[in-house]
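User: I'm new to structure prediction. If I give you an amino acid sequence, what do you actually give back? Let's try with this one:
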Amino acid sequence: MLEDGCKVKMHLRGTLDDGRMFYDTHLQGGIPVELTLGEGTLLPALEREIAGMVPGQRLEVRIPAKDAYGEYDPSLREVLPVSKVPNAERLPVGEYIVFPTDEGLLRVKVESVEGGNVVFDYNHELAGHDLTFRIDLVK
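Assistant: Good question. You get back a string of structure tokens that encode the predicted 3D arrangement of the chain. For your 139 residues, that looks like this:
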């Protein structure tokens, strides 16, 4: 059984319930991802599943939103007047931008720029989604 500190190499594919794929090592050069369990690189629920695997094993696991990136939280939306947002008219609506904060870089979705306001959504883009992962443990 694998435990924290074990280095693993695996192929990983993540999909949403509607079949949309959000991650696949096969499509990112076909190179398995390498990481050390317990370093916080993966979702804790996913690490627990990997810990029970043996090399050569394939596993498909579904992780509910609450154990993945959390439920979608409408309170994490912010409405600001365009006068408070530099270059508001050039913001990429529907896309994510990154800006510095005192705690580090923050990735936020520009939900809309209209009616004299900018709406930012601070939820993780996978918040509110149950996730399915196919894991192929290489070593």
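You can read the tokens as a compact description of the fold. Here is one thing that stands out. The chain has a mean pLDDT of 94.
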